[in-house]
Backbone:
């Protein structure tokens, strides 16, 4: 999956603005003034609408989700405070085999503990073993955890062992990370994600992973971003 191009960003912004124009005079937003105060005021003024931030809304564990957490919590409990990276790209971002390889090689190069949830698009007949490089799961077993499918994200982020969140910058996941005080390592792909990534850096709550000239992921940059953020949290250079 290639990241969104500049002209696609403009098209997406246009769609959002048209939807905003057709909305009611009062608009409720899943955000807060601490995150977007100046933008709320600006859009309220030029749009002649009252924007009311009522967030952030955070997903809480539902009945039946505990079975997933009981497998993860004992592993996290053994880790040093802020020493682990949580990696998840939501339910709508899916990567090619090459992109997954660059991410997992970057994770290995960073030499930090991590939890990585990998999801595949509906109808795709594949497995984690087929998508990651040969030997990756064996090399990362024990000190690292790879999960296929869903994981209790809010509970993971709220654990003291988590030091940063590698994320596509989907809005809901961003709000969760901010609410739990977990720095963000941004790898935006499409839609509102590039805008959200810029907001992350503007707020000083994370960094964006640099890509190659053609938008490709680079393992060295993935590792560099992770080491930078985790090192800060552990008090290391």
Residues:
């Amino acid at each position: 999956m290639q990241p969104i191009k500049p002209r696609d960003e403009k098209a997406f912004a246009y769609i959002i603005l048209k939807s905003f124009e057709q909305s009611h005079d009062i608009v409720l937003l899943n955000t807060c003034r601490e995150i977007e105060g100046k933008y709320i005021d600006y859009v309220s003024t030029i749009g002649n609408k009252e924007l009311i931030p009522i967030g952030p809304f955070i997903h809480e564990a539902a009945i039946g989700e505990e079975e997933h957490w009981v497998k993860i919590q004992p592993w996290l409990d053994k880790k040093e405070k802020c020493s682990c990276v949580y990696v998840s790209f939501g339910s709508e971002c899916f990567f090619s085999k090459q992109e997954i390889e660059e991410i997992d090689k970057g994770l290995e190069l960073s030499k930090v503990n991590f939890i990585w949830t990998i999801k595949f698009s509906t109808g795709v007949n594949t497995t984690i073993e087929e998508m990651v490089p040969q030997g990756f799961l064996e090399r990362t077993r024990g000190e690292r955890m790879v999960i296929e499918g869903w994981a209790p994200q809010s509970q993971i982020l709220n654990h003291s062992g988590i030091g940063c969140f590698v994320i596509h910058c989907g809005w809901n996941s961003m709000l969760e990370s901010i609410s739990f005080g977990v720095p963000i390592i941004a790898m935006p792909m499409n839609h509102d994600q590039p805008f959200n990534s810029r907001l992350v850096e503007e707020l000083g709550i994370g960094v964006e992973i640099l890509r190659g000239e053609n938008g490709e992921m680079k393992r060295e940059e993935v590792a560099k971003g992770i080491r930078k953020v985790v090192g800060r949290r552990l008090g290391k250079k």
